[in-house]
Amino acid sequence: MKTFTLFLLTLNSFFGVAQIFTRSELPTTLSAPWEITFGPDSMLWVTESNGRVSRIDPQTGNKTIVHSAADYFDGSPLENSPFCPSLGIGRGTLGLTLHPNFLTFGSSFIYFMYSYNSGTTANPDTRYKIRRLEWDLTTEQIIGFQDIITGISNGYDHWGGRILAVKRTNIPYLFVTIGDHGASETNSPQCYNPQTDNPNNFAQDPNTDNGKIHRFNMDGSIPADNPISGNSFYTRGHRNPQGLVYNKDLDLLYDIEHGDRTDDEINLLEKGMNYGWKDVRGYHADNNFPGESNYVTNYVPNPLISNDHLVEPIYSICAVQIPNSNNGNSWCTVAPSDGAHYTSTAIPTWTNSILLVTLKDGDFTDMEVYQFKLNTQGTIAPSTSQNPNPKKYFAEDQQLNGRLRDIAVSPDGKKIYLINNGGGTLNTDKITVYTVVDTTNNQPLAFKIYPNPSNGTIHIQLPEIKPSSIQIFDARGAKIKEIETFSELVTLDISELKAGLYWLSYQSETLKRVQKFVKE
């Protein structure tokens, strides 16, 4: 397994801790991975193309395909839009989740979502379903399956597709995101004639399944206390919700969704409520979208929904007025895909944060990981010039990583697993692993820097004569210098460095250490 070292500074003036990650890639061959989940069985669960579910050893990368859906259907050209032939019908293998009691006999179920043909060969009708797989904990294989939700609607864009099983008030539920299915009337006005046929007009309509987040019982039935009796919808008014994140500590559920040219959103989900798409985009008070303020002021609640009201996002990425440019790379949207709630103390500055991955390498955006620090109420903590929120990571590796489709965190919080679509010289799908390196003061120093402070030259006394790498980083985490050495004593000229604090990272095959020094 090829390993790289990446120095990322999460230096906080209170703790004074530098953070180093090593970057590695699992040697796993993947095809269009969409979901990665770290299971309670200490294995990674991944969905791949053609209706496949794979189980992967997070240490070795060894993969076992545990199920391939025989009825998987990749859509048909016969379903292409008559007005937009380039737009194909939705298809693919999307979200996956494990039963909250997965390690308990009778509850060892895997749920995943994929496309199938609900029509005929001559008249295809591609839709989505959710299949429940039964897992034998002893033999570690699938022993049965059942399609518990079928006929999920489809369209030419914005499919959502994330599913998440969580316990709330000790009751397990299955949450499913379904996008609005409509091509943007701003970007592709020719695709619907008339525009009233665009399915994104119905994102707020409780009688359609698109533009909603749905809640089911674990057998696919509808909970008796859903917002409308007999209706699976849980929240409405969503555009393309591709992420679901559960905050177990506070019993809060978040969705992450793509905006249209502006306003990628993180929403805190409230049962039955309306999140405004497509009349409201992002924050209610900014009026960045024509007619938005009037809609918010004069909102008419649905009489069938208790306490119905509009809810604005807890954070909007790219909260600006709609740009006139048709060049998507120039928009400040980041195309967020999914996220995870980081609860570990392994990286103290990350504790109680949402980690969000993005898909877009634009003129002003990168394919990277956002860290949103939460407050004790579960909303976004304030951002200051000294401590900005959010913070961003791994952008410097985006050409290696490619599009970041999903994220999972190891139980100890020391490893971040990213599903990557493309990237690298071979443009291959893969799993990238970032492992945090302990840099606390209880480690042996491993090397010495002297004189320290220095205004001209430093000497580095190494503990071994081995091929090794020495890197210097400034207080922002930017790499200033790198050398390869095969010596026990290294002398560096630092006279050209500005006065201040720097970090020196040393790595050989057996050691990874970091120390700070001061340039006077």
SSE map:
Elements: E1 3-8, E2 19-25, E3 35-38, E4 44-48, E5 52-56, E6 63-68, E7 93-98, E8 109-117, E9 126-136, E10 141-152, E11 163-168, E12 171-178, E13 212-216, E14 233-236, E15 240-247, E16 252-258, E17 264-268, H1 292-297, E18 315-317, E19 336-342, E20 353-358, E21 369-373, E22 391-393, H2 398-401, E23 403-409, E24 415-421, E25 430-437, E26 448-450, E27 457-461, E28 468-474, E29 479-485, E30 489-493, E31 500-507, E32 512-519
Antiparallel strand pairs: 1-2, 2-25, 3-4, 4-5, 5-6, 7-8, 8-9, 9-10, 11-12, 12-13, 13-14, 15-16, 16-17, 17-18, 19-20, 20-21, 21-22, 23-24, 24-25, 26-27, 27-30, 28-29, 28-31, 31-32
How would you describe what is shown here?
It comes from Fluviicola taffensis (strain DSM 16823 / NCIMB 13979 / RW262). GO terms for molecular function: quinoprotein glucose dehydrogenase activity. Residues 449-518 form the Secretion system C-terminal sorting domain. Residues 1-18 form the signal peptide. The protein starts with a strand and ends with a strand. It has 520 residues and is mostly beta strands. The chain has helices at residues 292-297, 398-401; strands spanning 3-8, 19-25, 35-38, 44-48, 52-56, 63-68, 93-98, 109-117, 126-136, 141-152, 163-168, 171-178, 212-216, 233-236, 240-247, 252-258, 264-268, 315-317, 336-342, 353-358, 369-373, 391-393, 403-409, 415-421, 430-437, 448-450, 457-461, 468-474, 479-485, 489-493, 500-507, 512-519.
